[in-house]
Amino acid sequence: MTDIAEILFERLGDKGWLPPADAGPYQRDWLDRYGVEPLGVARPANAAEVAAVMKACHAAGVTVIPQGGNTGLAGGAVAGEAGAVILSLARMNAIGAPDRDSGSVVVEAGVVLSALHESLEPHGLIFPMHLGAEGSARIGGLIGTNAGGSHAFRYGMMQDLVLGLEVVLPDGEIWDGLRAVQKDNAGYQLRKLFCGSEGTLGIVARAVLKLYPAQKQRVTALLVLPDHTSAVAFSTHLRAEAGEFLSGLEFFSDFGLELTLRHIPGLTFPLETRGPVYLLVELTSGSSRVPLDDILGAALEWGIEEGLVLDGALAMSDSQRSHFWLLREEQPEGQRLEGAQLKHDISVPPGRIAQFIEVGAATCEEILPGVRINPFGHMADGNIHYNLSPPAGQADFGGKAEELRDALAAMATAMGGSFAAEHGLGRAKVALADAQRSSVERQLMARLKTALDPEALLNPDVIVTRASVKNNFRVGDFS
Ligand code: FAD
Question: Domain residues for 445?
Fold first, then answer.
């Protein structure tokens, strides 16, 4: 055992320290693209133990990689080079008693999102973050990536749902910001700084999360549409008609449906008509007095009359509703099981979704004829997962992957959007980000990192390259 391994084993014990031989499940990322064998896996049981790990690693100059559920799609939760300690929050999974009057709950960073949902049910409260990986993703990881998901347009991203934080800093100091108030302008918004920082500035140990009263009713529909332009037009109408009751507005394509039906056992398509585009629409209300059925019914009637909606079905039971959602949420898994893929997490102003998809298709076809495009995502906030599979019969992208990625990123930027909407940069997109963002933006990020982690020991080369930190760039240093 190395010195640091011995120190950590002594401090954390059997349950809290795994040697490299037992690090297998923590080593590779969800997409199996990144991750080398770590020096070991630290599994602290509380904030004091996280601080002890950080202090020991800081003193020894050892790099630390925070890891939650390891469902991140940008390779930020695994070691990029040998000699790093993975710090898993999995054992820190306590959920406090929810405070109904204040609408908040204190949770540890290792709580799995679906476990939080289940724990709140008996209290008539919800935590309104939902995404396909909710059975594995943990609160600290969701904060680390500032996750979005399918309800973000109504309730906000993770940064809007975090009221307070407890964070262990790179040198092992603990910042206690566990305040349960929304209004707190006493200085810089430190809690927001850590949301989306992908484990590069500090390790979230606990969080105060914002809760909402449970929904008393919901209506869910699966619709078939002739094209993305119709989907945008119908969505605009629905947003105006349903107002704050609209809580789900997801889209996917027929190619995505085909992959999902092919690879996910038990999934079927419930409508007679297939079409190029599908919308999953959901309205919810915390009051039983709101006529959700009427609101959705009138909007659908309008959509059919206008020729924007070709067919549709309303979910008649909870299990049917879950089935509709699975058709959308299993899109990433369906495509993963098809083979090689290129994932692009794009956002554009929602009114430009159809334009992006159309121009993107022509651009991709020019670069790699026959490339298969599976655009799906969150219509209301313009978030398109513009994922590609190689041409039929081809195992890979024939050396065109970078060209495709750069062209799509440039298109998103040119349309006033982002090439990293909700999954973060991780290790996967740092070079791309450096190419896309302005020099001032690059400097600001490098300086923030340098201020909090001057030795670049916490998740180095994620978001900001280690070279930028070591050079301690100042405004004007980049050209
Ligand atoms: P990890 O993968 O373990 O870590 C993610 C990042 O956060 C890493 O950089 C890590 O170092 C850092 N981190 C982890 N824990 C901490 C901590 N305690 N303190 C500080 N930093 C930490 N994302 C969306 O936003 N919306 C979606 O709709 C969505 N759908 C998905 C569907 C599928 C099928 C999959 C596999 C992923 C999806 N994701 C989605 C991506 C992923 O689920 C989210 O990024 C999630 O937030 C990651 O949580 P995690 O616990 O797995 O984090």
Answer: 437-471
